[in-house]
Amino acid sequence: MPAFVLEIGTEELPARFLAASEKELAERFAAALADAGLEFSGLATCSTPRRLTVHIAQVSKTATTREEVITGPPLKAAYDVGGRPTRAAEGFAKTQNVALEDTFTVDTEKGAYLAVRKTIGGGDALEILAEVCPAIISGLSFPKRMHWGSGAFTFARPIRWILALLGSTPVAFGVGGVDSGTLTHGHRVHGPGPFSVNDAAEYFSIMERQCGIVARNADRRRIIREQGDALAAQKRGAVLWKDSLLDEVQNLCEHPVPILGSFDSTFLEVPREVLLTSMESHQKSFGLESENGRLLPYFLTVLNVSPSDPALVQKGWERVLRARLEDARFFWETDLASGFSPWLESLDSVIFLAPLGSMGDKTRRIENLCSWLADAVQCNDPEQKVVKEELMRAGRLSKADLVSAMVKEFDTLQGVMGGIYASRFGEPEAVSRAIAEQYLPAGPDSPVPASLGGALVSIADKADTLVGCFGLGMIPTGAADPYGLRRAALGIARIAQEKGLRFNVAALFARAMEGYGQRNWKILPEQALPRLEEFFSLRLKNHLISGGAETLLAEAALQAGFHDVWAASARLAALTAFGKTPEFAQSVLTFKRVANIIRKQDQDEGQRLTGRYLSDLFTDEAEKALAAELERLTPVFDKLWQADDFAGLFALLSGLRPFVDAFFDQVMVMCEDEALRQNRLNLLQSLVDRLGRLADFAALQM
Fold this sequence. Notes:
Layout: E1 4-10, H1 15-36, E2 40-48, E3 51-59, E4 65-74, H2 75-78, H3 87-95, E5 104-108, E6 111-121, H4 125-139, E7 146-147, E8 154-155, E9 159-166, E10 169-170, E11 174-175, E12 178-181, E13 183-184, E14 195-196, H5 203-209, H6 217-234, E15 238-239, H7 243-250, E16 257-262, H8 272-283, E17 286-289, E18 295-303, H9 310-336, H10 340-347, E19 351-353, E20 357-358, H11 359-380, H12 388-397, H13 405-409, H14 416-424, H15 429-436, H16 452-471, H17 485-499, H18 505-514, H19 525-546, H20 551-559, H21 565-578, H22 584-605, H23 621-642, H24 646-666, H25 674-694
């Protein structure tokens, strides 16, 4: 079977577009060829700044044929009572290009239908690819599109050429005003071309030998790493590889040439975070460090050309970086001469959100919320040690670096610089770490704060933002979330779960709302807070499900209570383990029956059950036995609950279930005697009061 290649040649594409475009090309081609019945193997995509390429090692020349049964109208609609074909039958046959006598009847779950049998597939691969390629190219999605010339066609960047070959045969089509052909273009300096490609199987060798291009992304990455490590070893150092930057750099070049530059060692007085940020964000370069972890006065950058005078190019890069580092040193020295006091005053002039006051107001609210959190956490777990005064100080200083000269220039260093400055200005280490970690986690894959202080300041900051935005009616809808509220809610959930922090989320939000005082809210607190709690529970559920939990189990666990995030996740883990035991299915059926009876009484009958019953009113041995077992288990249940032994609590259910089953087998709950009926319902309510703290069994399905 011949190989196939499609190369879309363009003006320089943004590096951030390439990975997603490769993935989409691979998915679209795999689906399109499979739908067309073309057999293929070895589908791969690659890209450079000037091309998107699909290469398939083997493609069948013709599509496979298959027989399909196509159903039409129901038989009763296809023929009238006299057995004559109706317009529905005739129209179906005409649509399928068959004679009416070629139709037949097929029995389905919905009854008898008129049907035809058709042979599909068998088309020529060249014809199929000529239809597939322009459709896929036109349908590619990009963050931004543009059009050029007078045409209406849009793409990420102007298309300059299209190479399309099946073996040695051109695949003819046109898109965006460009006709496909057999020519490709190489590196603008090392092999501009154009070059003719005689066979798709020769594509990569032509790229390398004639075009001067490393077409495959993985090969460019390997070259950068290997040559970069070799250059660093000459200086007895190691490159500080950063995967996100390496992804970007490999997509900025198609002829990678790593070079090493240096800078004055006096710049090492500036914090390494600043130096690395300047190298990485402004120059797309990597720093180097010594064996003992100290930053070295060198940097590694990657060219897209083999220069005739490498030393001259190196000096040019060094000159540009020196200017950047001079700026960074100036900002550093300026900030050190200032201090926190003037910054805190300046925060009162920086708007957080117009109706929510200034950043100064926000830090005061965070300070007070940190005080509440310190008490809440240490009250629930004396092992959690945090000095309240230090935590409150961290909350007050948390946003001070936003008005520093350094963060105004390097906004990605917010929080990080605040922690560095706090250390230089003599603040306790706990304060410095808390300030530095306040923005963590920055996303679902970002780590949570390592320190307890950082965790609590982060929670306070996120809760303040959530409450304020919900009060203003700025609630995320669809994909829109301009204030990152989903990320904030997820951050609180992750911190509480991963750090084992025990506090009541509803109480946290209520306290945060109190911190705003009296305001003209768009949504009143008594309405905003329940909506925020529901929003938070959905984020927590999604987080648990993405972590591997089954949806129904997650819902059952959270509907029993989610305000203590750690406890909710621990109960879910115990419920998941219980779900793998042989008695799980029958236990769910039994306890779900109990929950449904009580829920029906509450919703349909409007009865308010207290869970308090009178033993003297029991007349049946089964209800007496159930009550006795409940009374025996109550202190055991309470002890296990106090110890957070959720696995032990679910284990109790196995022993309790036979008593409940016997109760339902032998006792008429909804008897005519109102006193007996109420007493029996309260017995079940007493059981639900305990079960409901573990999981909402009514939410489970068996």
